[in-house]
Amino acid sequence: MNITVVAVGKLKEKYLREGINEYSKRLSAYCKLQVVEVADEKAPEVLSEVEMEQVKRKEGERILAQLKPDQYVIALAIEGQMWSSEKLASELDRLATYGKSQVAFVIGGSLGLSPEVLKRADVLLSFSKMTFPHQLVRLILLEQVYRAYRINRGEPYHK
């Protein structure tokens, strides 16, 4: 299976880069992983509603440019469905079984995803009702994908 993570912004924190590198290395035994960073839109700290939509639209265009027509897209959005680790594992297994070997996870910027990206998504997934820094979500996502592969292979992984 080919897993692509399309994420807005560059990772700045060393500890996040190290964690992502570790899970990327672990995942190499299970899938082909690609992490694609798209530029975040520079904006002032305080934005009007119109300005927020403009930022999301511009970031959304960059995200959509990275998605292939045959990819199954899972967008991370706070309004999405909340799955257990086992549900993520079963969904990845189901996709592989039915020939959907190109899966893209999308992580928006600090303002979230544009309506166009949400529309392109096959499913919206939420990790929590809480708000997380979008850079931290990358690490959480890779850990959960790794956990899903371990679950699907019946390999031990702490609960």
From TrEMBL:
GO molecular function: rRNA (pseudouridine-N3-)-methyltransferase activity
Main location: cytoplasm
Top-level taxon of the source organism: Bacteria
Cellular compartment(s): Cytoplasm
Keyword tags: Cytoplasm, Methyltransferase, rRNA processing, S-adenosyl-L-methionine, Transferase
Positions with a binding annotation for S-adenosyl-L-methionine: 76, 108, 127-132
Listed InterPro entries: Alpha/beta_knot_MTases, RlmH-like, tRNA_m1G_MTases_N
SUPFAM superfamilies per record: alpha/beta knot (SSF75217)
EC number(s) reported in the record: 2.1.1.177
Keyword check for Methyltransferase: yes
Subunit structure and binding partners: Homodimer.
Function: Specifically methylates the pseudouridine at position 1915 (m3Psi1915) in 23S rRNA.
Similarity field: Belongs to the RNA methyltransferase RlmH family.
Protein name: Ribosomal RNA large subunit methyltransferase H
Species assigned in the record: Brevibacillus aydinogluensis
